[in-house]
Design goal:
Length: 150
Amino acid sequence: MDTNKRAPGRGALGGTAMTDSDSDSDLDINPLDKLPMTATKEGTRSVLQALDEIQAIRPWRPEEGEALAGVLLGIKPASGPFGPGFMLLIRDDDGQKHSMWLTAYLKGQLEGFNARPGDMVGIKFLGKATGARGNPYNQYTVIVQRQRRA
């Protein structure tokens, strides 16, 4: 590994999805990781339950001015139209899980607050903006209410 490059590591978000070298996760992002590798009735039920859990995550596609608030669950790797990246996972007060792309801006904001899984987060979509180089980007406001740590 090139030591001049900053690996995302366990940073503020605390999930193992950020590096391949972290094996002691605080999060259970992929429920399939702990399933038995033999075909049994119990194993089949576990796979079906894991599929239900994954399908229960709703992508958050906000309109300008909409906000999402809830408990930060962590991150998970994903592939999208711009290549591989990470999805931010949040559970709202109704228990619904939501995902959204973890942009460099959102990652920086969450790390600035030293956000960890279990913290309350609020993200408001302010709309599209144009950067200094003329590139469009999604503009957000982020707040974090940290949970007390032992």
